[in-house]
Design brief:
By secondary structure, the protein is of the alpha/beta class. Helices cover 42% and strands 12% of the residues. It has 16 helices and nine strands. The chain has an eight-stranded parallel β-barrel, surrounded by four helices. Helix 5 packs across helix 13 and helix 7 packs parallel to helix 8. It is globular. The N and C termini lie far apart (40 Å).
Length: 374
């Protein structure tokens, strides 16, 4: 299990080693054809800041070689804001006195019909972590309802057992996003004081259970703002390296969620600037050209418009972060505030104006010829 590898690395020592990287280390990393974890440290270090333009050009070149000039579009579909966890950064936290809402089967279908009208064929199902209300049976039923309508169904829900994942894969589940939030084990409990999510090790081992369940794709990431973003991303890269070796047939994606305003939310402990986020995205692309890199509507219009050419391959659009937010109950409480509120049509038009092609299905649905001509 990855936990065994994780325990051989010290957070503080890793942080020091990243900040000790030099310009020579960065130049060496950028000059290689294949980079290792030490090179990744160099590319996310402060020493890499003067090389951002070179990194951006290289990231653009690598991305176009692997993905063509395409951007995959997807929509989050929030099924429930019920949650048994207390998380200091989330609007759905158990101690937040909000109106709770879980969509019925008919309401799920209503939301699906709205998203289909917008053009989506890839949907991400999101819930709070409430096993009794939105457990495996609920998720299984939701996938059954949605499977005839979408080419790809992903989930971002509570960690499950291996056999439970196998049940959902059999129903048509394509991908699972499971963010560790932070790999700083000593401080993890501070952000997750109550609920099943407070179990750091159980969450850390979730991608192993997913790999054993033969899931098609695993999404990793941390919540940027909780702890030092450079160190957290190194541990994400360490985790990814392990998974790619063990579950080599599985595909992987990385997301970059920044802490956003929400009811009862803590202030970010670690600030990342837009320039630093660009550096991080480019570093990931140069480090691993096979990765799908996803940018959500947490980011503002200007940033999303310009990050397309710098390595991003997937984007959400027209997002609502509340259950029923598209058509059932638009005024229910959001999990967090989005920053790009443009319509789906506006985002699609923006992508095309950059000379890129919006992709509504997952990459495997397209032939090599179609990728090349796009």
């Amino acid at each position: 299990m990855f936990g065994e590898i994780f325990e051989t690395h010290n957070w503080d020592e890793t942080l020091v080693s990243i900040y000790a990287k030099t310009a020579t280390d960065v130049q060496r990393a950028l000059g290689k054809s294949k980079r290792d974890l030490e090179d990744f440290k160099a590319m996310i270090s402060p020493a890499a800041a003067p090389y951002l333009e070179q990194m951006a050009q290289l990231s653009n070149k690598i991305t176009q070689k692997r993905f063509g000039k395409t951007v995959q579009l997807y929509a989050p579909l929030y099924l429930s804001n019920e949650c048994q966890n207390i998380c200091t950064y989330c609007g759905f936290s158990y101690d937040n006195k909000i109106k709770r809402k879980t969509l019925s089967g008919a309401e799920i279908l209503q939301e699906a019909e709205f998203l289909k009208q917008q053009g989506f064929d890839h949907v991400l199902l999101v819930t709070g972590e409430a096993t009794k209300t939105v457990g495996v049976d609920y998720l299984k039923n939701a996938i059954k309802i949605l499977r005839p309508h979408f080419a790809n169904i992903s989930i971002e829900v509570q960690p499950l057992e291996e056999e439970e994942y196998k049940t959902l894969v059999a129903e048509g589940l394509y991908a699972v996003l499971v963010y560790q939030e932070t790999y700083h084990k000593d401080n993890y409990k501070t952000y997750h004081p109550k609920g099943k999510k407070s179990n750091f090790d159980y969450r850390l081992d979730t991608p192993d259970r997913l790999g054993n369940a033969a899931i098609h794709k695993i999404g990793l990431g941390v919540l940027i703002g909780l702890e030092d973003w450079r160190t957290d991303n190194f541990f994400t890269a360490l985790h990814l390296n392990y998974l790619e070796r063990k579950f080599w047939q599985t595909r992987y994606s990385i997301s970059f969620p920044r802490l956003r305003p929400a009811s009862g939310l803590i202030e970010p402990k670690s600030i990342i600037t837009d320039k630093e986020l660009v550096q991080l995205i480019c570093a990931w692309r140069i480090f691993n050209e096979e990765l799908e890199l996803s940018i959500s509507t947490r980011e503002n219009e200007f940033f999303r418009d310009n990050v397309i050419k710098l390595g991003a391959t997937a984007m959400s659009a027209g997002s609502k972060t509340n259950p029923g937010g598209y058509s059932v109950e638009p005024e229910s409480l959001e999990q967090f505030e989005i920053d790009d509120s443009r319509s789906v049509a506006e985002v699609e038009q923006m992508i095309e104006s950059k000379g890129y092609k919006p992709v509504w299905k997952d990459w495997e649905k397209f032939t090599i010829t179609e990728k090349a001509t796009s």
